[in-house]
Amino acid sequence: MNLRQFLAPRAIPIPQVLWDAQLRALPLLAALSVSAQEQLRALCGRFLATKTIAGAGGLEVTPVMQLHIAAQACLPVLQLGLRWYRGWQGIVVYPDAFRVHRKVEEATGLTHEREDDLTGEAWDGGPVVLSWADAGPAQGLQACAASNVVIHEFAHTLDLLDGIADGAPPLDPHIHKPLSRTRWQAALDDAYERFRAGLDLVESEIGPDIDPDSEHADHLYARLPLDPYAANDPAEFFAVSSETYFLQPARIQDAFPQWYGCLDAFYRPQSIR
Q1: Of 134, 173, 186, 212, which residue is 20 to 30 A from 265 by alpha carbon distance?
Q2: Whole-angstrom Cα distance, residue 29 to residue 253?
Q3: Domains, the chain, ranges and CATH?
Q4: Is pTM, for the whole model, over 0.85?
């Protein structure tokens, strides 16, 4: 069953009972005002009317699952609008982590093949691919979590609007007037390099007798303001920062105030607050 088949072309009406269930399933929405929650609800209706959410790997996507994904996906563009998700249509949802076969070219020029198990992926021009085990209510109910695979992958789609995954989404001169590409890049570079230095320091304390995946190592990594995955490259730094901005903003604000200011001005542009 797909919600789109019951709707007018431009929006899908979301029953109150389904919306209330989503507010309970996603504590991150509790911080929104009532008017913002209703704005998000309307945005979700338009999102579901314009995007196709399909199951893969034997998963049947229900209307409740569609709305759950939409509510998380629409949060980053609540103040920006759905045009920021232009240029692609499909969302593919697997039951669990999915395997991707890759060819990787090393700096030496040698190419090798590998397989990665992923919880999400965003491609230029679509689709966005998600693991339901990581995007569903079991994860959403972790109110203290600082990670959200849906926000992460949809942040990548914003970054890819100019065709380059570099941690610098395009800026709209009409609504992002306090921002500039120079200011953004300077804040991104500074925060990214300082984060990598902090990660290096943490990893230097993990001696050979400590399992990097152990609880003791987790305790050391917890000192970082972001998930270590953010150190992979600037694109991942932006995506992980976006998750944390919506879930635990104080962590970024305290660690990287200039970078936080850029994220805040991007996601909540002053001209439309």
Answers
A1: 134
A2: 20
A3: 3-160 (1.10.472.150), 181-272 (3.40.390)
A4: yes
